[in-house]
Amino acid sequence: PFLLVLDEVNVAVSMGLIGVDDVIELVKNRDETNIILTGRNAPHEFIELADLVTDMRKIKHPFDGGTEAREGLEY
């Protein structure tokens, strides 16, 4: 089996860059590939479809101290 990570795909969906149905189609039509969807505010359709859902929360982040987004990490 393979692993496909769609990093920040939930954000892309919320911004209208990709449709919920497009992601659902990809997930439903996968072979033995494991797919990880990341990002804030997952659509309820993704949560219903998922085998595992983890809710992470920020405790501390460099942005809190004024650090700007860093190439290679945040984008």
Write the layout of secondary structure elements.
Blueprint (H helix, E strand, L loop, with lengths): L2 E4 L2 H6 L5 H9 L5 E4 L6 H6 L26
Parallel strand pairs: 1-2
Descriptive notes:
This protein has 75 residues and is α+β, with helices and mostly antiparallel strands. The chain has one domain. It contains three helices and two strands; from the N terminus they run E-H-H-E-H. The protein has a two-stranded parallel sheet with strand order 1-2. The two termini are 28 Å apart. The mean pLDDT is 94.
Descriptive key words:
alpha+beta; two-stranded parallel ribbon
Strands, count: 2
Which bin fits the share of residues in helices? 25-40%
Coarse structural class = alpha+beta
- Stretches where pLDDT is under 50 for at least 5 consecutive residues are none
Side by side, the strands of the main sheet go 1-2
Shape: elongated
Q: Strand-and-helix sequence, N→C?
A: EHHEH
Task: Give a short synopsis of this structure.
The protein is α+β, with helices and mostly antiparallel strands and 75 residues long.
